[in-house]
Amino acid sequence: MENKHKRMRIGEGKISGALSIFLGALSLGGILCFKFPEQLTTPEFREVYTPEIVENLMLGGIIATFLFALVSLLLANNKKYAVVGVVLGALAVLLGGMTVEGRAVEKMNWSLGLDWLILDLLVMVLIFVPIELVFPKNKLQSKFHPEWRTDLVYFGISHLAIQLFGVLTKKPAVAFFGWMNLDGVHTWVNELPFVIELLIALVVTDLFQYAAHRIFHSHYFLWRFHSIHHSTENMDWLAGSRTHFIDIFFTRSMSYMPLYVLGFSTLTFNVYIVFIAIHAVFIHANTRINFGFLKYIITTPQYHHWHHCQEPEHYGNNFAVVFPFIDKIFGTYYLPGNEWPKGTGLVDASFPKGFMKQFIFPFVKNPFKNDLLPEERSDR
Ligand SMILES: [Zn+2]
Ligand SMILES: [Zn+2]
Q1: Where is the Fatty acid hydroxylase domain (predicted)?
Q2: CA-wise closest residue to 158 among 78, 249, 70, 74
Q3: How far is the CA of 274 from the centre of ligand 1 (A)?
Q4: Residue 377 gets which letter from DSSP?
Q5: Distance, CA 229 to ligand 2 centroid (Å)?
Q6: Ligand 1 centre from 213 Cα, in Å?
Q7: CA–CA separation, 146 vs 172, rounded Å?
Q8: Confidence band (pLDDT; 50, 70, 90) for 88?
Q9: CA distances from 49 to 57, 102, 132, 160 (A)
Q10: Does 5 have pLDDT greater than 90?
């Protein structure tokens, strides 16, 4: 039987076709951001865009879309990739993609983060796709495995809703600590050298994150939600995005609390956000790169893949997202030399396919085949 999801090979015209569609879609999204900046761009980001950078990105994106479409047209038997790429590129041109010009933007209460989605997708693909292609862990796994579209929808929605998530996850911190006068603590933290401040932010949030993560594993009702994140059998840079809204909300709210209470500077906060965004993608990546002794200091793909392992005897380990020493302290550390888990995913559960179905499912049904008692579920 032919494997529909085997890796693409150079010379088939498929890679160029996929690149053409990818860049065409990003260019089209980019021009939509220009047409509707109030509704589609992030207010904090607007301040850092310069017209030259954006103009060149748009122009480069559209030209590359057409060039890759041409290569695909020449090489591929199936011309549909090239046609889709050309259509997307043409739409971007028709909407004015070659001659973008900034304009004054009115302030709105709510907006979607389409600009954040486009930029992060572009940067993550530029960093991680080459790494996964050159140093893959699972050599046979294609980028276009059976569930890549579902994972992409998770990635898209969490980025579009950046503002909503930001506001919602800050609420519990404000509710619990907003009434306290914490100016003294804030002054002390802000007087620390930047590196120390950043390190404290990373360690403290990882401790809170660790606690939230363990709660999601040990409470049988919450495990229904978090197990969606564990349902991925094809670990790659995009797979970490598969996280239920309830999971994101509670885990981020918990991690947010120390940041709010200790009052870190805007610079520390922004560096923290960028680091966590890249690192969370990194630990799910399909790459065998293991970083020598560094793997004992900071979590790596091998470390987090063990957290996703299929072997029941190794469940309940490696909850820390950034620092393995936190698992060491709490006795949940597992890193056997250079060994990797045989597989990832859930052997005893089944989720429906697709974002919306997975969103509703844990509220109404138990994804696990055997109805274990709550206390038996807690060994995860
Ligand atoms: Zn987990
Ligand atoms: Zn994970």
Answers
A1: 199-332
A2: 249
A3: 22
A4: H
A5: 6
A6: 6
A7: 37
A8: very high
A9: 11, 10, 30, 18
A10: no
Determine the residue type at 76.
A
| Contact (CB, 8 A) for 97 and 57 | no
- Using CA atoms, how far residue 368 sits from 136, 277, 346, in Å, is 31, 30, 9
- CA separation for the pair 281, 290 (Å, rounded): 15
Alpha helices (H) along 95-143? 114-134
Tokens at residue 30, please?
């980019």
Termini Cα distance of the chain: 36
- pLDDT tens digits, one per residue of 92-117: 989 887 776 666 777 777 889 999 99
Neighbouring CB atoms inside 10 A of 230's CB total 20
Q: Structure pTM?
A: 0.89
Structure tokens at 5: 């999801």
Of 369, 359, 365, the residue nearest 157 (C-alpha): 359
Look at residues 115, 134, 25 and name the one whose alpha carbon lies nearest to residue 69: 25
Beta carbons of 97 and 58 less than 8 angstroms apart: yes
Separation of 97 CA from ligand 2 center, angstroms? 37
**Amino acid sitting at position 40:** L
**Three-state DSSP class for residue 239:** helix
User: pLDDT at residue 157 above 80?
Assistant: yes
Which residue, 365, 367, 363, 364, is CA-closest to 351?
367
CA atoms within 13 A on the CB side of 137: 25
Ligand nearest to the CA of 303: 2
Six token digits for residue 332: 């949940």
Decide: 341 and 311 in contact? Cβ < 8 Å: yes
CA distance 61 to 43: 23
Angle at alpha carbon of residue 257, lines to 254 and 263, rounded to 5°: 155
88 CA to centre of ligand 1 in angstroms: 38
Q: Looking at the predicted structure, is the pLDDT value of residue 4 above 70?
A: no
Per the rule left: phi > 0, alpha: psi between -120 and 50, beta: everything else, 337 is left
Place of tokens 């392992």: 309
